[in-house]
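Our collaborator T.R. sent over the components below with a one-line note: 'Predict the complex.' Nothing else. No constraints on interfaces, no templates requested, no preferences about which chain binds where. So this is a plain run: every listed entity goes in together, and whatever single assembly comes back becomes the starting point for the next discussion.
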Amino acid sequence: KAGVTQTPRYLIKTRGQQVTLSCSPISGHRSVSWYQQTPGQGLQFLFEYFSETQRNKGNFPGRFSGRQFSNSRSEMNVSTLELGDSALYLCASSLGLAASTDTQYFGPGTRLTVL
Amino acid sequence: DQQVKQNSPSLSVQEGRISILNCDYTNSMFDYFLWYKKYPAEGPTFLISISSIKDKNEDGRFTVFLNKSAKHLSLHIVPSQPGDSAVYFCAAKKTSGNTGKLIFGQGTTLQVKP
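Returned assembly:
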């Protein structure tokens, strides 16, 4: 079974631009979560989507948004990029069962550099 | 407020010996805990998990211990191998919240010397 894929793997943008990152979950997984990893803050939860609906949201500004499509693929968008948005953005997929202990499996990440 | 803490940024052990990685949490609502391993330029890889109804879970060389009263968990790797050298993250979640949201510790870099 193919793992979680993320595109692109690397991205360089300048301040003020916007960016869209893509994630394809493991086949059969309906939940997709996004995390930001930075050296100072570690892995921080951005948001989670399940069946095209946002199920939970982390403590990030409104410049960070996402969506999920009917095939469970997900995109996240960051508008008006700031230098501090430079990070590794990780996508994780899971079955998404309620009150569940199902495991999240991570993709390789997208390394975003903002100049 | 750091709800999950890994107080040791790094750990170095000799090949064949035991590696013990520690993790503390503050939120008593957390009832499911996971350990992930991460190599540079890759996403975290799931290692092992434990539910709060257990105090130990074992999978091959990896064992996770949970002490609920102390809000502490640890990952034991026996025997340690050079390929285990990576960053290890513990993560916690509340299964009652109908969400997959994980709260991660800051990570511990393990170096296993040949």
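Summary for T.R.: Chain A has a mean pLDDT of 93.
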